[in-house]
Amino acid sequence: MTIEYATRYRTRSHIPAEPGTPYFIEKGHGDRAHLFGDLVTVYAGGEQTENTFNFFTVEGPKGNIIPAHSHPDTHEVFYVTDGAVRLFVEDLEGNQHEKLLTPGDFGFVPKNCPHAYRMERHHSRVVGVAAGPGGTFERFFENFGAPTDALTLPREPVVPEPGKFATVPQQYDVTFLPDHQWRSSGS
Known about the structure:
The chain has 187 residues and is mostly beta strands. The chain contains three helices and twelve strands, in the order E-E-H-E-E-E-E-E-E-E-E-H-E-H-E.
């Protein structure tokens, strides 16, 4: 059994809004959002960690590459628990790296490094952690995508309306790079 809280983001949540409150969340019952073809579940965010880190999962089907983006003030971790995820990263010198991550594999993306990923197998899951001096970006998913109570992937991809691309990402330390080209063979 989990306790439900009301937050400024949701009428009900299993995550307490105040820092310093211990809590437990059953599998999948964090704050959920659909974005593109994925289900994002946030288990801890800035409110609980005094803006020092967040913890979330991204589950999705085999599909298209998530658009290239960077986080000017946030480091991001990718840890694959299910399926396979191809991570694309460009370092600060402009060298591009590509790695297929399978269960147990880890990828680290420093702040300011362009990156993207693609689910390579159906039912893939990434555990993500983001931290940095700019705070956390977990509320990006529900503000850019669509909050959901569903425990499943979206039936149809949730593609944000064009106006959101110009406003929402910058509020959450996300910079989309629409002209970025990946020179690797896997893109």
